[in-house]
Write a structure and sequence with these properties.
96 residues
Length: 96
């Protein structure tokens, strides 16, 4: 019977486990934090116990600095004549 505490298993975890965690968890969370207007370094909260819960609530309850992806007419205010000018197909724009 082999033990999971042998040095070979630790080496395999360091070579394959940690890069897999980075690719599957930390990098996408860094992208989400950046898109929300926060520092991508906040994803390091996942390395401490209950840090992922803190990060989840921080992202959920904070005001994001980005606009929605698709805005029917971003220049017009709601309720003005520009938004109700003429019926027909609306052009959907995306801010970059």
């Amino acid at each position: 019977m082999s033990s999971w505490l042998q040095p070979a298993h630790l080496v395999y975890f360091l070579l394959f486990g940690i890069p897999a965690i980075l690719v599957l968890w930390v990098i996408p969370l860094g992208i989400v934090c950046r898109k929300a207007g926060f520092s991508p370094w906040l994803t390091l909260l996942n390395c401490i116990p209950f840090g992922n819960t803190v990060l989840l609530y921080l992202l959920a309850l904070a005001d994001w600095k980005r606009r929605p992806m698709f805005v029917p007419n971003p220049a017009a205010e709601p309720g003005t004549e520009q938004t109700m000018a003429k019926p027909g197909p609306q052009v959907v724009t995306r801010e970059v």
